[in-house]
Amino acid sequence: MKSKRGKAVVFTTLFLLLALTLGVAAPVQAGEFIEGDSIVIEEDEVIDDDLFVGGRIIEMNGTVTGDMFAGGEEVTINGLVEGNLFATGEKVTVNGEVQGSLLTGGADVNINGIVQGSTLVGAYSVNVGPEADLQRSLYFGGFSLMAEEGSLVGRSTYIGGYQAVLNGAIERDINAGLSAFVLDGSVGGDVKLIVEHLRREEQPPEFVMDSIPYFPRIDILDSGTTISDSAEIGGELTEEVDVYYDPDIDVGVDPEVRINVEIPNPQTRGAAIIWQVLNDLRERTGEFISLVIIGAILIYFVRQPLQEVTAKMREETLQSGLWGLLIAFLFPFAVILAIVVLIAVIILLWMVTLGTLGGTAIQIGGLSLGAVLAVAGLATWFITKIIFGYLVGAALLERMAPDFFAGRWGNYAALVLGVLLYEIVRALPFLGELVAFIVILLGLGAIFLWLREKRQTMQPATA
User: Fold this and answer.
1) Residue 286 has pLDDT above 70, yes or no
2) Does 429 reside within a domain?
3) Is 355 helix (H, G, I), strand (E, B) or coil?
4) Are the C-beta atoms of residues 350 and 357 closer than 8 Å to each other?
């Protein structure tokens, strides 16, 4: 591993899309949106569909056969959710069973039940209790993660935050970027840490953290790494540390573990090169398969628009590149402006309607913004490359095998050939990254020019 003094990656995951306050208070029925001050689903109640709940206090003791969406101040799940569970609140507690995945966020999250799918948590504080059985991987982003003795993670654990105390069992690996790490449990695989040891004055002051409303009171650890004598690690412990040599700080690790230094022998360099080649091959193969699948869907359903955008890229290459550069520059500012406007609208509606429409505005605005970002991401990382690959493949087949290209499978063959050539070039050091950047700009610009032309041609018809 290369020697470096990299700072820990601290992820702060915000879950704002689940503030659900749609619907009116009503008896529990399948597929309804339920809102109220205090909502209780009794133990013998069965909701044979998806359930959407918004309220101050939510307690679910029954059974939901579909997905469950819950947003409130306090959300408690004691029953069975046969689908996925999406929950957000100041305090979220999961004591029951989730047969799908769990996506939750809040100030204080407690998990002490069974989750058969993946567990994704963004919170200030997360406590995984002694009865918790998380059968797939755990993904945590926030400030503090505590896994008590007896808890189980069936696969790997991924952590981004300030501190983590792991006293339970993890079947596979730990990958963490943080400042304070304590391990007193068992890990079946490797432990890979990026730890930033802070100066005393840089560590979070408890009186500040404790003064934040709705945040639970937790012990804030000094930065450092502690591996207890009773801890079990089945694989290797790898730690990259950014150390400020402050004598007042006990970093908690042996000096030889602090900084990983690559030993420059031929065997080590050869293994690193082989690993890098295999990893690059995996990335290029995965992107190739993804582009072919999405491109084939586009050819089947929207072949003419795809061909029209491709023609724009071919005939107006310079204009496409310039417009793409402008879009790439302006889009982040547009997103920031949209978020500011959305927050202003939510606050205004919340004040004017005394909170009645606030939750609805959060849901509609958040989903709308999320949809726009999803479409933009799809266009940027996939459709632009599909357009370029189809352009290259079509140009080659028109010259080499025009009859085949005009046949039933010609467009699909052009897509596969062009994307394959793109991925080969993309694998080249430096040049590949430059080509990918240019392709994205050309694709974004071509899409914009095509949309502008469609809008102009539609105006006379609607006038």
Assistant:
1) yes
2) yes
3) coil
4) yes
Q: Residues 61, 46: contact at Cβ < 8 Å?
A: no
Residue 251's CB: how many other CB atoms inside 10 A?
Answer: 20
Give residue 360's domain range. Answer: 268-462
End-to-end CA distance of the chain: 65
Of the two residues 324 and 218, the one the predictor is more confident about is: 324
289 and 258 within one domain: no
Predicted TM-score (pTM) above 0.70:
no
| Domain end marker among 207, 235, 262 | 262
User: Which tens digits make up the pLDDT trace of 304-348?
Assistant: 999 999 999 999 999 998 999 999 999 999 989 988 888 888 888
Q: Do 170 and 273 sit in the same domain of this protein?
A: no
Q: Are residues 246 and 334 in the same domain?
A: no
Q: Which of 101, 49, 46, 40 is nearest to 75 (CA)?
A: 40
Residue 317 structure tokens: 């290459």
Q: Considering Cα of 218, then 148, then 133, then 191, what sign does the dihedral take?
A: positive
Tokens (6 digits) for 22: 């749609």
pLDDT tens digits for 163-212? 999 999 999 999 988 888 999 999 999 999 888 765 554 455 454 445 45
Rounded CA separation 30/37 (Å): 20
Q: Report yes or no on 430 lying in a domain.
A: yes
Residue tagged 């596979």 (tokens): 172
Q: ∠ CA(253), CA(256), CA(262), 5° rounding? A: 125
